[in-house]
Amino acid sequence: MNTDDNTPHSSGITRRDSLKGIAAVPVEGGFVFGASAKQSYDKEVKEEILKELNIQASLPPATGSMAGEPIRLGIIGFGIRGEQLVRASGFATPEWLQRMQDAALKNKNDTRLKDFLEQESLNIQYTGVCDLFDVRAENAMAAVKTDNNTPKRFQNYEDMLASPDIDGVINATTDHWQAPLANAAAKAGKHVYVEKCMTHKIPETYELYDAVTQSDIVFQVGHQHRQTQSFLTAQDAIKKNVLGHVSLIQASTNRNSDNGAWQYNIHDEASPSTIDWEQFLGPAPSIPFNKEHFFRWRKWWAYGTGLSGDLLTHDYDRVNCLLDMGIPQYVMATGGVYTHKDGREVPDVFQVTMEYPDYSTGSTQEPGKEQGMTFLYSASLGNQFHRPTLLMGHDATMELGNNLTIYADPRSTRYQDMLEDDTIDPSVPLYAYSPGAKGVDGVTSATAKYFADKGLLYTYRDGKRVDSTYLHIREWLSCIRHGGQPSCGIEEGFEEAISAHMATLSYKTGQRIEWDPVARRVLNLEETTIAAT
What is the reported pLDDT for 360? Predict the structure, then answer.
């Protein structure tokens, strides 16, 4: 690219002027940056800048109308995430509504209740509720009951799935129950929305894959960041090779609170008389009633998948939805319990390296020079210092979150001319996209800010902040009503689950785990080890 060409465009704007206009210029909800003097540019200049970069701020494909007969749903599991999912779909507990009303009275900028009340109806009925803790089941009943619908409480999921009054289920149970419930629902012909990690171990991942692909149900995994506008814009930048060959991805989890480390509250009314302990254990080893295991189940391998299945899966899928890199060929993981010596089994400091030796996002250099990529995940539950997600390419680095920022690399091939004539300053963003500058008032804690940065709380539609989970559930319901495939179906769920389980296997065995993409099997471990680990 010859940036010494100062031939005026038809508008009278020179090419150099256009490029130097990459200086904090607002464009349709985004901002394009550069290194030149801060001055105002008119609409024509903005259009020239956008034309030069050619990155499109994108929305997801529109979902269909919610009109028609109500879809009848069952909620299985009304714990922390189950309550959030039900609320995102339009139903809140009286206690939550009161808390939000009080918060809005104290802070006029707190719009959480207003946003909830103005949310479009998804035209659903919760005709069934299933939770093993009586208090939670009663809370769920109070949330979803309406003037024309009184839900039934089911004591077990089998009875719910056998009911003709249930069209689909939202599965928000523990990790060790995710696959058995989803598998049974698929075989019963019930549509499934399941939270990550969709399985507990590798063998049941294949079983669930077969059950879903052999059924006619709509299956959605709850990675709601796929509705986040900045991620879809990032997809366009990747497609147009803005970064060049991406050789390293850095993703992280940083938390420093008891809640962030799964040290959840234990309810005062928890007892063997209010909790169906034997049903909770299910396929897990039999032990006496233990309130801590019930409420803080993520800390034990018998029920949870650790940092791999809980938080690595978020970051893996965030990147996989951009790069479509799939399951890594090699995985190594290390870590330990270093910050919460409270009897837990799963590590609270965790490092994972995923290798993709044959992967390429494309290159601006001579053919054959660049190939291969490493995905590096690092987690600590004892420190919350922000570490951004970075996609590091030969030509540029992308910082990915609810906002999107791209920096040119000083040794870029694609941008070499613009770097040499100081059109681009590597220390200043080449491109940044912010789908909405307002609406952060509802982010009230460090944990909420962590999820917001990863695109897991909200996104924007037409400048208005919208709950990402609501959009993800709406997409699932739209596919049920009108056909089509959801953005995070069984294929994406399979890739996520296998990749996470490979990290867990590596941590537990101390070995590098290898994947055969043709046979779709782990190569270097015995089947008995894989099944037991």
Answer: 93
Quick: pLDDT tens for 480-504.
Answer: 999 999 999 999 999 999 999 999 9
Spatial separation of the C-alpha atoms in residues 421 and 407, rounded to whole Å: 17
Please, are residues 513 and 522 in contact by the beta-carbon 8 Å criterion?
A: yes
Cα angle 504-250-301, degrees, rounded to a multiple of 5:
20
- pLDDT by residue (tens digit) across 359-379? 999 999 999 999 999 999 999
Domain with CATH 3.40.50.720 in the chain: 71-226
Strands 71-76 and 30-32: unpaired
Q: Report the run of H or E that residue 104 belongs to, with start and end.
A: helix 94-106
Which 8-state DSSP code applies to residue 441?
A: G
Read off φ and ψ for residue 47, nearest 5 degrees.
-65, -35
- CATH architecture entry for 71-226: 3-Layer(aba) Sandwich (3.40)
Contact of 486 with 194, CB cutoff 8 Å: no
CA 62 – CA 321 distance, rounded (Å): 18
Sign of CA dihedral 485, 399, 353, 381: negative
Give which of 337, 259, 258, 252 is closest to 300, Cα–Cα. 337
Residue 501 token pair? 């389980």
Which two three-digit tokens encode residue 49? 């800048």
Query: What are 363's two structure tokens?
Result: 């290159």
pLDDT at 465 over 50: yes
Q: How far is Cα 430 from Cα 412, in angstroms, rounded to an integer?
A: 13
> CB of 374 within 8 A of CB of 384?
no
Retrieve residue 383's tokens. 């420190």
Q: Which of 342, 339, 326, 366 is nearest to 492 (CA)?
A: 326
Strand partners, 124: 71
Give dist(CA 372, CA 359) in Å, integer. 5
